Amino acid sequence: MTYDEFNQFCGSLPATSHIVQWGNSHVWKVGGKVFAIGGWSKNEQPAFTFKTSDLNFDFLSEHDGYKPAPYFANRGMKWIQQFESSLERNEELQYYLKESHRIVSLGLTKVKQKELGLNQG
């Protein structure tokens, strides 16, 4: 996945906003809370960072092409970075980005969720 494809996908999710910060990274938020970051790559290959469930964090931490996210995981947060791309990984990434969006949106207040039209059904 390219950064343009990443931005297009994240922008298609409900109630999102985008900002470029943290070393020119593409930072996506829902309700003002970060759910995905495109950037922080150590080479030319794009890297994508997202929040996960505890179970997915444990699984992906041991899976090729993924690692605990720099700056987040070492603070005890369940964030993963995907640093290898392929067609299969792109499909996985879309799933994990949707999950990250869902997890972060569930952490918003009920009032904020209702205001943004999230998790109402």
- Give the termini separation: 31 Å
H/E element string? HEEEEHEEHH
Number of domains: 1
User: Under the CATH scheme, which architecture would be assigned?
Assistant: Alpha-Beta Complex
| CATH fold-level assignment | Aspartate Aminotransferase, domain 1
3D structure, described in words:
The protein is of the alpha+beta class and 121 residues long. The N and C termini lie far apart (31 Å). The chain is globular, with a radius of gyration of 14 Å. The model has no long low-confidence stretch (mean pLDDT 91). A six-stranded antiparallel beta sheet has the order 1-2-3-4-6-5. A hairpin with a 2-residue loop joins strand 2 (25-30) and strand 3. It has helices at 3-12, 54-61, 87-106, 110-116, and strands spanning 16-21, 25-30, 33-38, 48-51, 66-68, 79-82. It is 37% helix and 24% strand. The chain has one domain: Aspartate Aminotransferase, domain 1.
